[in-house]
Each structure stands twice: as structure tokens, then as C-alpha cells.
Amino acid sequence: MENYFPGNSSTYEGYVVEIDGKFESEYGTFTGALKAGFELRKTFPHSQVIVRDANEQPPTDAQSEVKTVATLN
């Protein structure tokens, strides 16, 4: 699977799982990413877990708007 690097100009059809705003993993399908996100929520119940499109730029600060695919809170 391709590594995710913020600012990478290449496009990738997949989904990124983040925990507390930090990259955790990348999946080829939304279902796979969502399943991984739910498992992370079980392990880290007080953390914010987000599943988003891999091509979407992560927010640069707390005030930035981002189209989040799924926030698992």
C-alpha cells in the first residue's frame, strides 16, 4: 500500500485513518478504513478517530474547515 505524506501531489483512491490528528493508516476502501477506525475507538476511547479521503488535505489548524468522511466519536 502507498505511504501517505501530507502535501504529496499524487492522487490516491483510498481513505486515511487518523487518531488525534495524526496519521495512523491508509486503506483502499472506505469499509476497511471504517472498520479499522472502530477498532481504534475501542482501544483509545478518549481519542478522536477520523476517517477521510486520502486526497483531502488535512486541516492546518483547529479553525480550518475540512470535509470529514467520518468522525468516530
Question: Got a strand count?
Answer: 4
Structural class: alpha+beta
Give the CA-based shape.
globular
Helical content class: 10-25%
User: Which value, in Å, is the CA radius of gyration?
Assistant: 12 Å
Report on the structure:
- The protein has 73 residues and is α+β, with helices and mostly antiparallel strands.
- The protein has one domain (15-72).
- The chain has one helix at residues 30-43; strands at 15-19, 22-27, 49-53, 70-72.
- The longest helix is centred in the middle third of the chain and has 14 residues, at 30-43.
Structure at a glance:
With 73 residues, the chain is α+β, with helices and mostly antiparallel strands.
Give structural attributes.
alpha+beta; 1 helix; about 20% helix
Topology:
Elements: E1 15-19, E2 22-27, H1 30-43, E3 49-53, E4 70-72
Antiparallel strand pairs: 1-2, 1-3, 3-4
